Amino acid sequence: MTAEHTPTKQSKAKQQPAKQLLQSAASETALSQAAMLWGLGDWPSLLAAAENWNPEHNSALAAYKIAALLQNGDIDQVKAILAASDFDVIDRQLLSKLLIAGVLNSLGKARACSFEHARAQQLFEQSVNIGLPYTAPATLLRARASTQLAQLGLPNIQQHETAPLFNPDTAHFLQSATAFFQDEPALELALADYYQREQRFDQAIVHWQQVSAMLEKDTPQPYYERLKEAYRNVKGFPLGSVEQETLRGDIDKHKLLAAIHAKLEPEFYFEIGVQTGKSLALAKCEALGVDPMPLLNVELSKNAKVITASSDAFFAQKSDMLLSKQVDLAFIDGMHLFEYALRDFINTERHLKPCSLIVIDDIYPGHIDQANRDRCTRAWTGDVWKVKAILQQFRPDLVMLAVDAYPTGLLLITALDPDNTQLEQNYSAIVQEYLSKPLPQAEVVQRDGAVSGKNEQIFKLIDLIKQCKKQGAGAKVIQEKWLELYSRGISQQ
Ligand SMILES: C[S@@+](CC[C@H](N)C(=O)[O-])C[C@H]1O[C@@H](n2cnc3c(N)ncnc32)[C@H](O)[C@@H]1O
User: Fold this and answer.
1) Exposure check for the chain: N or C terminus, fewer CB within 10 A?
2) What CATH number should be reported for the domain holding residue 279?
3) Atom 7 of ligand 1 has which residue's CA nearest to it?
4) What is the pLDDT of residues 27-48, one digit of tens each?
């Protein structure tokens, strides 16, 4: 084809009827408007303008609309536009540029929420500049950062030197940030940090715990350090009414644990959740405690060792320490959220023998408000009560005895099966199902089915464990012998 016959844009336009010309002029205007609003990061205005476009007929406009919808978290609309639009190579390139820029923008917002302003500014700038053949003007870069911070209810980055980090109107911040970061660790992180700076440590603890509930086993140790700082400084949690703070039990848990140590005579004791060291100090044998923020104030035996790490980090990196040991007794008393206690049980069982004994604390809230995942009372069990229900549902093979210990009950578990993978395999489904059961039933608070802390069954169970250990008996034998002794095991109640 000679140059003479190459159809230029102009000659193509000449052949177009007037209606098409008008449409394409309107698209050009819409496109420059879209590009400007996108540069500014004004997603609400961009979406309002998009109401007048017909993105199916112009996939470049569709790309801008998609970028704004993604910033607003509207995935369903994005899918619908993608299905209806026909992107050519050029517009695909634009779309991918905008998507990458969108990720950078979201990261910038997350950094802003966790007070990393310099990094936030950098990310906003990278987002605006991505794919541009020149550097965007400084005013545009500043505008992008301002709009994003304003959308989060945060003051402008330029004001950070002098202005308070957050809008003094905290409620406004919470509202706008929650709208943008629902169920996002970044929001919880920002709130935890905010309350810590404000020295409102009880609230900071609640939000640090939420951060770790969301990040689960990936919670970085520095967050636990901040939580520890909050615990060190907290003057106390809001005191609920007398009823809300009810505690029950006919034997003190440390007294009962001491009696279990004396009767069982473990060779090795393992503990998750050490705090002051009161329960770890009961071990006279070799002992290992794990806590990401121990606050030791009790003298421990010289055979006791404390590892500063979350239980998840311990099991991921250091649990070999347990392999060569005969762990006869393990006490799970770490994070008071059921998924933590469940993971602690799964990981602990894997390292124990069938005739070892696991004790789980906090299975009985004294009042339903103590079972709240967000702590709102001084006495707090969180929703660890769910672990007992989960074990009854998924592990009927275990021998369990729930004890009416003071202040929040204890669950004794034996006939362990280190090779059983039921809980592990169903972990995600279990967590999903049990997260939607927010409140314990009355029978949980009333401790239906719990035995007294002075009940002979506790010591019969320990005798059985010792006997089975001597004989090297397996889990099945322990279960059968227990049923012979007490036909109504807790798993049948
Ligand atoms: C109720 S206290 C333990 C009390 C202690 N067992 C006693 O009876 O004396 C709970 C402890 O669990 C710790 N903890 C919180 N999250 C944890 C985690 N992910 N892994 C292990 N321990 C954790 C806390 O730091 C706190 O010290």
Assistant:
1) N
2) 3.40.50.150
3) 279
4) 677 788 888 888 888 888 888 8
Q: Does 374 reside within a domain?
A: yes
Alpha helices, DSSP H only, in 130-277?
138-152, 170-180, 185-197, 201-215, 221-233, 253-264
Q: Are residues 123 and 227 in the same domain?
A: no
Look at residue 160 and tell me if it is in a domain.
no
Residue where the block lists tokens 């929650």: 178
CA 81–ligand 1 middle distance (angstroms): 49
Q: Which of 272, 274, 290, 375 to mutate to test the pocket of ligand 1 (most atoms within 8 A of CB)?
A: 274
Alpha carbon distance 168, 155 (integer Å): 10
Domain count for the chain: 3
381 and 256 share one domain: yes
Pocket of ligand 1 (CB under 6 A): 272-276, 278-279, 290-293, 310-311, 333-335, 340
Distance of CA 477 to the CA centre of its chain: 39
pLDDT digits (tens, 9 = 90+) for 433-475: 999 998 899 999 999 999 999 999 999 999 999 999 999 999 9
| pLDDT, greater one: 101 or 136 | 101
Amino acid at 355: C
Closest CA to 40 of 150, 133, 154, 142: 142
Four-residue CA torsion sign, 44, 46, 51, 56: negative
331 and 189 inside one domain: no
pTM: 0.64
Atom number of ligand 1 nearest to Cα 362: 1
Ligand 1 atom 27, closest CA: 275
Residues 385 and 339 reside in one and the same domain: yes
Do 136 and 199 belong to one domain?
no
| Centre of ligand 1 from the C-alpha of residue 185, in Å | 22
pLDDT tens-digit profile of 257-284? 999 999 999 999 999 999 999 999 999 9
Which residue lies with its CA nearest to atom 14 of ligand 1? Answer: 334
